[in-house]
Amino acid sequence: ITLYNWNICNPYNGDSTNPNYDEAVMTTAYIRIVDPPAADYQTRLNDASGTIQSTFCLGADIYFENLSTNAGDYTWEFYDDLAGTTLLATSNSVNPTYAYSTAGNKLIRLTATNPNAQGNCTNQYESFITMSPAAMANIELYDSGFGSMIDGSFCVNDTEVVSVGFRDATTDVEAGTEWRWELYNSDGTLRESIPAGPGTYGAQVTDFTRDFAGAGVYQVKLIARNNVSNCLSEDLDSIVLYEEPDPFFEASNVCEGERTPFLNIADSTNSIIPRINNDYVGQYEWDLSYDGS
Do residues 68 and 40 lie in contact, with contact meaning Cβ atoms separated by under 8 Å? Predict the structure, then answer.
C-alpha cells in the first residue's frame, strides 16, 4: 500500500486519473494476509505413542493430539456431558492430557487462535469421547434370608458357621454388560468364581448365599465389564469373622474373710487368637457371686 501526501506548498492537482505524484511525499507499507486457523484434534490412550481411539476406560489418561494449522494459541474445554453445559476443566497446552472419572459421552472443545493476526482470528473444533463402562458394580450384603442388610462383621467361636447373602446391586447397567464374582479365602487365595474359570464373565448372578467358618477376613469382589470396550468397574467388600475372646484368670483358695488375689487375668489382646484387624477386648464384667450354674 502506497500513501501520497501533498502539502500547502505542493497541493494535490485534483485530477484522480492523473495525479501529480511527483510533487507528493510517498510512503509505502505492507499488509500481510494470513490463512485463518483450522482447529482439529484426535485422541490417544496415555500419550503421543498411544492408540488412536474415542472410547476410554474410566480413569485412563487421554492424550489430546493437536492437529490444528495456522495457529499458535490454544484453549481446551473439557465438559462432563455431551451438551457442553458442565465445564470440568480448561487447558492452554498444545497437547494436554486429561482423565475422566464418570461414564458417558464427553464434549471437548478446542479453540485455535493465530496470535499474529489482528482481530478475531480464531476457529473452534468440537468432538466427543465415550467413557466406559456406564455400569458401576455394587455389592450388597444381607442375612441368609435376604430380610435385612448387614455390615459383614461377626463374632464367632471355633465351630460356628455364618451364612451371608450376596446381592448384585450394579447401577446404570448398559447393553453389553457382563459380570464376574470372586470369593476369596482368609489367606487371600481364590475360593470360588462365578462363572467358574479364570477371566470368565457371564450373565448377572444375584441373591445367593455362602457359608463362612473360622476367624479371618474373607474378601468378595464383583466386576461389571463392558464386553465391547472391555472397560470394567469393581466393588470390593469383606466378610470379617472375629474370634470370640477367651476369658481366663487364676485364683487361690482362701479362708472366709481373706482377700483373694486374681492372677494372670486375660488382657485385651492375648485373650483373642487370632486377632483380626488389630481387634481387642474393650470391656470386662466380673460376676463375683457366680455359683457355677
Answer: yes
